[in-house]
Amino acid sequence: MSNNTVSDEHNHADGVDRRGFLKCMAWAGTGVVWTLSAGILSSCTLSQASNATPGDFSFVQVSDSHIGFKNVPNMDVTSTFQKAIDRIGSLSTRPSFVLHTGDVSHLSMPAQYDTVDQIFKGAKFGQDQVYYVPGEHDTFVDNGKAYLDRFGQGSTANGWRSFDFKGVHFVGLVNVWNLKAGGFGVLGDDQLAWLKKDLDGLSASTPVVVYAHVPLWALYPTWGWGTTDAEQALSMMQRFGSVTVLNGHIHQVLQKVEGNITFHTAASTAYPQPAPGDAPAPGPLRVVPEQLLSSLGVRQVTFVQKAGAPVIVDAQIT
Amino acid sequence: MSTHANCDRRKPGWRTALGALLVAGILPVAGCAPTAAAVSPAAGLSTPVPPAALVTLPPPKPAHPADTTAGPSVSIENFNIVPATITVAPGTTVVWTNHDDVEHTVTASDNSFSSPAIQTDGQFSYTFSTPGTYSYFCAVHPFMTAKVIVQ
Fold first, then answer.
1. Fewest CB atoms less than 10 Å from the CB: which of A43, A210, B138, B143?
2. Contact residues on chain A for B121, CB-CB shorter than 8 A
3. Taking the complete model, does pTM exceed 0.90, yes or no?
4. Do both B35 and B3 map to the same domain?
5. Structural domains in chain A?
6. H or E stretch covering A148
């Protein structure tokens, strides 16, 4: 059962072998809710989780809405984004806020940002209840100007930010600026310096949630699915008891656990992409129409008092 | 792997659920941890179907028509730039055609020139007047790289 093994041998207190660990993928199966309690990873089925008591607070992650995309397999990404937000509205506990982990738009156009903004507002999520980070589709046309004009309020420099909510520290990182030929996502020295300062004053017992667009580990370098200088950021987080990293970009749900850090990539609300290396290219997967909705998703993240790490549930938007 | 605790505190139905997971080829790491289980998603949640389990349509155009351009042409297909290296004389206009379902760009590595987003079946042309080696990439998918040699 190597695919799901979470091996304690990789749980290095000194983190020296982090690079080695990155090669050791611990994919977790979908259909299982992962929880971390007293440092032990455990799992529940979704049906068990739904019978449990409500948590302290929850939030929702949506990703890769790609408003403006119009091609196989999804000719109406606005409609599927609307369904995703409706799905959030059907949750028994209303989330405290929403994280959008980028590729809000397909082509960085103000009208595409408008669409997303309006759908959120229609679901009574005001701009102060939705936290965004950009994807490369939000920056490549105009170097992110329209994105920052719309969603950059309260953020630093090219859109990174942090905030605290009920004792949990949230950090939104931007790894899609200044992309270089042949390269991956990149955080850059300015953001890393900011991050160091941001984390410096925090107690090690503070649960940390990091959200960004491109995965913060070398998930599949051939397709650029990784962030060049992510290890510098992750090394700053080793001292914390619980770090949860949420990202989008690859349009599918994957998980990995590395010591105190759990990585979760999210489904898109627009279209799926192939599993790493499972196709000639990482473009939209031409899924049959009847399976489109079941390939898309939203994610609910619930923090439980005293538990440290959150409970994470990925759900289809149907 | 290590064996985790709490197995004896499984709720009724766990065995059935475990069996279902095993049938589905998913092997849970450990038992449910009641101390941390506290989430209340809407009933009937199913996780998104993973890409490998999806049924896909056949490719749209097994053979797209040949690029019709007056000068040298470069094709973008399956996130590849073909040919990856092209050599032309000074003053030559090179034409790129995007055959993918998503937009790409032709962006100089030193940012000296860049196309806008090239739509599906769209084209971009650029005239190289000065000898040299021009490396370029796709600004949306930076792993796509190629070059034009002007001599």
1. B143
2. none
3. no
4. yes
5. 2-316 (3.60.21.10)
6. helix A145-151
